[in-house]
Design brief:
The protein has 219 residues and is α/β, with parallel strands linked by helices. The chain has a domain of 149 residues: Alpha/Beta hydrolase fold, catalytic domain (Rossmann fold). It is built from 7 helices and 8 strands. Helix 3 packs across helix 4. The radius of gyration is 16 Å and the shape is globular. The N and C termini lie far apart (50 Å). Pfam families: Abhydrolase_2. Keywords: Hydrolase, Signal.
């Protein structure tokens, strides 16, 4: 399956893959935010590994896929409005179920995914965080918003960039708020575990099984 390259002057250039042709109803969308070393002007670098490569090398999948690209030196938090604009554009133009949008990130992209999910409650049905940390800038009320969505966190035990203890602390905090968080540690994994994470059939099934249903507020 070939992932399309799309250049968008109003937001960010991005990769896009349609859902399998036999889908007869609105399908999920997986939004992927890449890491720091894949910033630039060449979308092809995103296809070298991780989720973009998995999508590109797979037969048609049961979900839409998109991966915007940051220019050099920028962060996802700085381009938050552009990512949301891209999401809105795709939902308006494709047969995407807006209650089944999953956001995922690797490294720098994980920080962006945490920020966007916390800042836009109701937009995402799930979060997949790979080899990345929660931004220290998140407010307590933003963490509370994250308890509404299932979260999958993956980290290598030999990742020199991240502390297992710090991740365990945020997992405990979110679970204490009532959140659903799965934390998977790869005992021999370093920072670059994305290929192994995204090719796992269990995670692929998880991506299409989430749907956002906000908790009723007691009056």
């Amino acid at each position: 399956m070939t992932v399309e390259h799309r250049l968008n002057t109003s937001t960010l250039p991005y990769l896009f893959s349609p859902v399998s042709a036999d889908a007869n109803q609105p399908a999920p969308l997986v939004l992927f935010l890449h890491g720091a070393r894949d910033r630039g002007t060449d979308l092809n670098v995103l296809l070298k590994w991780g989720l973009p490569r998995f999508v590109d090398e797979s037969s048609p999948l049961p979900y839409f896929f998109t991966a915007p690209q940051l220019p050099e030196g920028q962060t996802w938090v700085e381009r938050e409005s552009d990512v949301i604009a891209l999401l809105d554009e795709l939902i308006a133009s494709q047969s995407i179920d807006p209650s089944r949008v999953i956001i995922s990130g690797f490294s720098l992209g994980t920080a962006g995914a945490w920020h966007l999910a916390a800042s836009h409650p109701g937009r995402f049905a799930g979060l997949v965080a790979v080899s990345g940390r929660v931004p220290k800038t998140l407010e307590p009320n933003q963490l509370v918003a994250l308890k509404e969505i299932p979260i999958q966190i993956f980290q290598g035990a030999k990742d020199e960039k991240l502390s297992i203890e710090d991740t365990e602390q945020i997992v405990a905090t979110l679970r204490g708020l009532g959140g659903t968080v799965d934390f998977t540690v790869f005992p021999e994994g370093d920072h670059f575990i994305a290929d192994e994470v995204y090719s796992d059939p269990k995670l692929q099934q998880w991506l299409v099984s989430q749907s956002f249903h906000p908790t009723a507020v007691a009056i």
